[in-house]
């Protein structure tokens, strides 16, 4: 009966499609006599032109170049751009699904204002449509009013995934012209700020690294999810293929707390106790020195050839001649001499012989690279962990070396048509706002070494300390859901006028008083300078594949539109700046003197090719000397002054095992971390402070390949693809070691409760024997209570709700991976 019904339905479908074909003028199927009979071949109706537009995927920070296929105004395919050096014609599975963002049925379709004054998870905002003029006037009126009352600091901009000159790049001037220290507060401290600060502290570059994977022969991966998330994801997967098939094959040791694809694919997988990576790295450094495996040309050597590093024994002052490093003698004598593999075993739980083997391999295979990301840095001791790992790159001479790591070069953009400095009024120059700290207290005595502390904003506003915000505008960030302990934000933002620019109904949008929807990435013109990649400069362009299909605008144009309505010279500045397109045309003018390798030399050719880039990387360390590219080769030797200005931007101009940057903040670090003032500069072992009270299990919430930060949850295909692995629509698998579960009377498939001192969430238990028994794994991005029909209600397991707001005092990075929890049957 069911089969018969299906046949009938199918027949009706074929009949109706024949009718459609006929009305469209197709040569004809005149009748259907049976299902077995195939319709006659018919000529293809002309269906309009297919246009291929160059753009950039927006789902993760990899920034892959894409070819967007549009026919008759509809985007129907997205492929990797073969001319884009990151994508090389390939995409990760998410990239192909980008049209879901464009055609998301839950998108905001135009500006709207809230009519329900009550805010909360269960409150319907009661959004009603308004015009753009009305909306922008409303914002300008608020901002002008605040300024007149001398309270402009109570306006804050927040951003997450900024792209470049045409959006987040506009913030600095806005703050300066309008007069607020809060333009803008970025999400870096909720992202991966720890690795940047560890590099700042050791080699002076506050930045992610670029890597020369093509020529690397050894990779030590510590707490970076290389085959699931590490940036640029699609490209590092391609590089993995290259490294593992080239000759010699790149050997890989992976250190993580759970079985992940990188651990599974590595030559050696080491399970580390969460938060203890610093101890492991110090022991590796110890062995590299005692086994005399360090790079003598980069690091330096003993004056007396017979001297060596012996475990537990100091070396005499002035016995070691340092070349490009600073503080090695003190580091060894005051810290490293006792950091043996046996010492580290007791802390990390990794057997000493594995530490020793890793060290010997790492120290004797050139070039070797140690890389890390949120694993080691997502703890209170994150910066020190990161510094210890990065020190290994210095010991083997990998910084700026072939097959080693460097830093991404900037793009030679042209100047803006106007300069903000010419449009400052007295208030902008020295109004009362100048005495106000940022609402997140970044860069103040509370968080002196940080540049952003977004996670502090909710709590600070709630406490009215340093003040109460009046108005907050959000771009590409959703802290009411992604921040640690987001319930505090829900409470805090009830009395703030919220403007959200997300095209999608995320949690922050549910608290908004005004929705000014950005266009989706396939509809907007936007630049995107490349960050962590191969080092040479590159910037790609998003060219709209279609005109906005609803009444939305590019965020940059929204910002400029608000600016145009500001009173005084600020308004004049924005009228002169005009539009995002004008900004980008002026930026692209910089290519005239610097044509890219693909011939891009102006705005039009940039649009056509979608990317400007220029190889090679400019600097090279070779046998202990630094060179600049001279046009044909690395043949311009650099002076120590040049190295200090361009490469090692530390007080000493060298790689610092004793950090001048940390020493500048010695009193703060002593108070916050209990490290004696005279020792703070040393790369050293610091115990992590785990949150979670009496919890007996560690809890990590990593990213999966089908997740796009916190904003990819409303793509049904993504859900379908990873459903078997991470859980279904209504359940989320909590991955638990079987022994851990059995000890608590939990069976595979049971509903379980995970509890921290903030509360509990539930999930479905799934046995994964590959994880550490003391560590629970719950993928991030579940448990949305908004964000669209497919995202919503896939809970209740949002890991953020049981993640305490605790941060590394140095980098400010939220310690997402440091919480302890309890587990029981629900
Ligand atoms: N697919 C995908 N890719 C992405 C993103 C995305 O959302 N989806 N987001 C991008 C963003 S914003 C970022 S910040 C990057 C993040 O890139 P990563 O930092 O590489 O990603 P995480 O998932 O945070 O993974 C860190 C790894 O650390 C491990 N870990 C946790 N605690 C410890 C520890 O104490 N020690 C060690 N050794 N390991 C530990 C986790 O198990 C995990 O495997 O990814 C980017 N790429
Ligand atoms: N428990 C736990 N929490 C985490 C993490 C974790 O691993 N575990 N990871 C952390 C990390 S690394 C990061 S980077 C943060 C990310 O956290 P956020 O900075 O909050 O970024 P997203 O979650 O990506 O949120 C982006 C917002 O942008 C909106 N959006 C999507 N597309 C567009 C667009 O085209 N234009 C505009 N204007 N808006 C858009 C979305 O609707 C959403 O509201 O989360 C952090 N939170
Ligand atoms: S790696 Fe990131 S940018 Fe590239 S296709 Fe995948 S989601 Fe898009
Ligand atoms: Mo991030």
From TrEMBL:
Keywords: 4Fe-4S, Iron, Iron-sulfur, Metal-binding, Molybdenum, Oxidoreductase, Signal. Its cofactor is Mo-bis(molybdopterin guanine dinucleotide). It comes from the Bacteria. Residues 50-106 form the 4Fe-4S Mo/W bis-MGD-type domain. It comes from Halomonas chromatireducens. One of its GO terms (molecular function) is 4 iron, 4 sulfur cluster binding. SMART domains: Molybdop_Fe4S4. Transmembrane segments: none annotated. Belongs to the prokaryotic molybdopterin-containing oxidoreductase family. This is Polysulfide reductase chain A.
């Amino acid at each position: 009966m069911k089969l018969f019904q299906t046949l009938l339905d199918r027949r009706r479908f074929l009949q109706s499609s024949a009718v459609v074909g006929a009305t469209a003028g197709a040569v004809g199927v005149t009748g259907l006599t049976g299902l077995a009979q195939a319709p006659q071949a018919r000529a293809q109706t002309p269906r309009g032109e297919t246009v291929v537009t160059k753009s950039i995927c927006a789902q993760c920070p990899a920034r892959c170049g894409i070819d967007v296929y549009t026919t008759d105004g509809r985007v129907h395919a997205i492929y990797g751009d073969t001319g884009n050096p990151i994508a090389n014609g390939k995409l990760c599975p998410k990239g192909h699904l980008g049209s879901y963002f464009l055609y998301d049925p839950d998108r905001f379709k135009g500006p709207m204002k809230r009519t329900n004054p009550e805010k909360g998870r269960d409150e319907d905002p009661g959004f009603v449509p308004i015009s753009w003029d009305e909306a922008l006037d409303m914002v300008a009126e608020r901002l002008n009013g605040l300024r007149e009352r001398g309270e402009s600091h109570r306006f804050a901009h927040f951003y997450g995934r900024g792209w470049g000159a045409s959006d987040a790049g506009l913030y600095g001037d806005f703050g300066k012209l309008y007069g607020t220290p809060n333009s803008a507060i970025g999400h870096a401290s909720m992202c991966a700020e720890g690795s940047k600060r560890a590099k700042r502290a050791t080699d002076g570059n506050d930045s992610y690294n670029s890597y020369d994977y093509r020529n690397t022969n050894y990779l030590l991966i510590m707490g970076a999810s290389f085959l699931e998330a590490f940036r640029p994801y699609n490209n590092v997967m391609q590089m993995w293929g290259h490294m593992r098939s080239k000759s010699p094959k790149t050997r890989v040791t992976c250190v993580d707390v759970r079985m992940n694809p990188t651990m599974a694919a590595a030559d050696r997988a080491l399970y580390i106790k969460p938060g203890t990576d610093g101890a492991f790295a110090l022991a590796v450094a110890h062995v590299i020195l005692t086994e005399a495996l360090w790079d003598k040309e980069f690091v330096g050597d003993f004056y007396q050839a017979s001297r060596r590093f012996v475990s537990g024994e100091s070396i005499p002052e002035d016995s070691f001649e340092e070349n490009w490093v600073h503080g090695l003698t003190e580091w060894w004598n005051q810290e490293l001499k006792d950091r043996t593999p046996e010492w580290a075993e007791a802390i990390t739980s990794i057997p000493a012989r594995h530490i020793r083997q890793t060290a010997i391999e790492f120290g004797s295979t050139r070039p070797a690279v140690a890389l890390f990301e949120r694993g080691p840095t997502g703890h209170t001791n994150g910066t020190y962990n990161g510094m210890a790992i990065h020190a290994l790159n210095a010991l083997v001479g990998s910084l700026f070396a072939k097959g080693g790591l460097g830093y991404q070069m900037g793009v030679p953009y042209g100047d803006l048509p106007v300069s903000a400095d010419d449009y400052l009024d007295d208030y902008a120059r020295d109004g009362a706002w100048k005495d106000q700290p940022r609402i997140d207290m970044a860069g103040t005595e509370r968080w002196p070494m940080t540049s952003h502390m977004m996670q502090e904003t909710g709590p600070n506003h709630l406490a009215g300390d340093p003040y109460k915000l009046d108005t907050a505008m959000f771009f590409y960030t959703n802290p009411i859901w992604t921040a640690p302990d987001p319930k505090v934000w829900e409470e805090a933002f009830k009395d703030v006028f919220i403007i959200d620019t997300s095209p999608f109904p995320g949690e922050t949008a549910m608290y908004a008083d005004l929705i000014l929807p950005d266009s989706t990435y396939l509809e907007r013109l936007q630049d995107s300078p490349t960050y962590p990649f191969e080092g040479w400069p590159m910037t790609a362009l998003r060219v709209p594949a279609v005109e906005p299909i609803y009444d939305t605008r590019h965020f940059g144009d929204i910002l400029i539109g608000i600016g145009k309505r500001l009173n005084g010279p600020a308004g004049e500045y924005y009228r002169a700046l005009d539009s995002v397109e004008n900004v980008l045309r002026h930026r692209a003018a910089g290519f005239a003197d610097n044509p890219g390798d693909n011939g891009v030399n102006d705005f039009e050719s940039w649009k056509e090719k979608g990317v400007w880039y220029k190889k090679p990387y400019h600097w090279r360390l070779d046998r202990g000397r630094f060179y600049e590219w001279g046009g044909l080769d690395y043949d311009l030797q650099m002076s120590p002054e040049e190295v200090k200005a361009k490469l090692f931007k530390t007080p000493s101009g060298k790689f610092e095992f004793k950090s001048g940057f940390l020493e500048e903040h010695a009193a703060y670090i002593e108070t916050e971390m209990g490290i004696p003032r005279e020792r703070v500069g040393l790369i050293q072992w610091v115990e992590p402070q785990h949150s979670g009270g009496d919890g007996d299990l560690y809890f990590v919430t990593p990213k999966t390949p089908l997740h796009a930060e916190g904003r990819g949850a409303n793509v049904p295909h993504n859900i379908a693809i990873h459903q078997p692995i991470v859980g279904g629509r209504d359940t989320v698998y909590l991955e638990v070691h079987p022994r851990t579960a059995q000890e608590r009377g939990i069976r595979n498939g049971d509903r379980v409760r995970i509890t921290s001192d903030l509360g509990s969430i539930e999930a479905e238990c799934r046995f994964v024997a590959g994880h550490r028994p003391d560590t629970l794994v719950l993928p991030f991005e579940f448990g949305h209570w908004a964000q669209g029909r497919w995202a919503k209600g896939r809970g209740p397991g949002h890991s953020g709700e049981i993640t305490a707001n605790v941060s590394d005092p140095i980098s400010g990075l939220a310690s997402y991976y440091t919480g302890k929890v309890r587990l029981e049957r629900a």
